[in-house]
Specification:
mainly alpha
């Protein structure tokens, strides 16, 4: 007999966070490979594409950490800390394990208001709308990620900011 997972838990906050966290780590590895090619082998053709892929994954991770953090009711400091850990190569792995061990990724998506007074906030209402309307919400998130990455492309690599 097979069992099916209810739609609410099929793509849980934990699964969403894990997928994007792993993607962020893989793209870190790609960027490091590109940088080794540039600085060790004088072959810099991989730095831009791998940097772009990693930058996009980083921004997607930040968006996911924000959405999951709001859903899980993390304090702002934890959300900011999660994003900061992605700056450290492979830093999302120990964070992911820590969040899981402490039960901070468990549970489903909060698609309905509860008795919690925080559910009346504009942010919580917007989050619930997005979670109940996943296709337009996903499109909105993708558009925002692309816009941020585009702006970052215009201002240049982080090492050149402020020059």
């Amino acid at each position: 007999m097979t069992t099916t997972v209810p739609p609410q838990t099929a793509f849980s906050p934990q699964r969403a966070y894990r997928i994007v966290s792993v993607a962020e780590m893989i793209t870190w590895a790609l960027l490091i490979i590109g940088m080794v090619g540039k600085y060790v082998f004088d072959f810099d053709a991989l730095v831009f594409p791998f940097g772009l892929i990693h930058g996009t994954a980083f921004v997607a991770y930040a968006a996911t950490a924000l959405i999951v953090g709001l859903n899980q009711r993390w304090p702002l400091a934890r959300i900011v800390g999660a994003v900061a850990m992605a700056i450290v190569p492979f830093g999302t792995l120990p964070l992911d394990r820590s969040l899981e061990r402490r039960g901070l990724l468990t549970g489903g998506w909060r698609t309905e208001a509860s008795d919690d007074p925080r559910d009346g906030s504009v942010i919580d209402r917007a989050l619930r709308w997005g979670l109940r309307n996943p296709v337009p919400f996903a499109i909105l998130v993708v558009v925002i990620v692309v816009a941020i990455v585009s702006v970052l492309l215009v201002i240049g690599p982080p090492g050149e900011w402020g020059k």
